[in-house]
UniProtKB/TrEMBL annotation:
One of its GO terms (molecular function) is phosphatase activity. GO terms for cellular component: cytoplasm. InterPro entries: His_Pase_superF_clade-1 (IPR013078), His_PPase_superfam (IPR029033), PGM_Phosphatase (IPR050275). This is Broad specificity phosphatase PhoE. It holds the Pfam family His_Phos_1.
Length: 184
C-alpha cells in the first residue's frame, strides 16, 4: 500500500517559518499544497490503485480529491488515519460541515465530532496504527490501496518521517516498526 502525506497546509507553511503554533484550525492547502496534490494524482494515475482512504481533515481531503478523480475512485473517509491531536490544526471540522463542503463524499459512518478533545498520547496513535495495520493486512488487495494521511500517523505506521506531498510504500503484514522516534 502507499501512504501519501497531505500537501503543504497553511499551518505547515507558518509553523515551518516560526516553529510556533499559528492557531489555524483544520487548515486548507496552500498553492504549493494543491500543486503537490496534482503531482501525486499524475504519478498515482500510473499505478494500480483500487481504493483511496483518507483522513477527514480538510488538508487530506483536498489532497485526496484530485487523486481519486484521476483514478476514477470514490474516497473512503476514516478518522483512524487522522493526525495525532497535538496542535490547533488538529481540531477538525464537524461532519455536518464536511458533508456540506464535500457533497459527493460519504461521511455517514463518522461521528459529528471525530477528533479527540485533548492532546493524544503517542501510545494512542501507535494503537490506532496497529488497528489500521491489522485491518489492512486482513484484505487480499491491500497492495492496491492509497492512504492520504498525516506526519504523525504515517510515522506511527511506518517508523518513517515524510514531508508534505511525499509518498511511502508500506506492507501491513510486515508488522509494526521497531522504533518510532517522535520529534519534541
Amino acid at each position: 500500500m502507499i501512504f501519501l502525506r497531505h500537501g503543504q497546509s497553511e499551518f505547515n507553511l507558518l509553523f515551518t517559518q516560526t516553529r510556533r503554533d499559528p492557531g489555524i484550525i483544520d487548515p486548507k492547502l496552500t498553492l504549493l499544497g494543491h500543486e503537490q496534490a496534482e503531482r501525486a494524482a499524475e504519478e498515482l494515475a500510473k499505478r494500480d490503485i483500487r481504493r483511496v482512504i483518507t483522513s477527514p481533515y480538510t488538508r487530506a481531503l483536498q489532497t485526496a480529491t484530485p487523486v481519486a478523480r484521476a483514478l476514477g475512485l470514490p474516497l473512503t473517509v476514516t478518522p483512524t488515519v487522522r493526525e495525532r491531536y497535538a496542535f490547533s490544526c488538529d481540531v477538525g471540522t464537524p461532519v455536518s460541515h464536511l458533508q456540506r463542503d464535500w457533497p459527493g463524499v460519504g461521511f455517514h459512518a463518522i461521528e459529528e465530532i471525530w477528533w479527540p478533545p485533548i492532546e493524544e498520547p503517542e501510545d494512542q496513535v501507535l494503537a490506532r496504527a496497529a488497528l489500521f495495520r491489522a485491518e489492512m493486512a486482513a484484505l487480499d488487495d491491500w497492495a492496491h490501496t492509497l492512504v492520504v494521511s498525516h506526519w504523525g500517523f504515517i510515522l506511527a505506521f511506518t517508523g518513517q518521517s515524510v514531508m508534505n506531498g511525499q509518498m511511502i510504500e508500506a506492507d501491513p503484514t510486515a508488522g509494526a516498526p521497531e522504533n518510532v522516534v517522535w520529534r519534541h
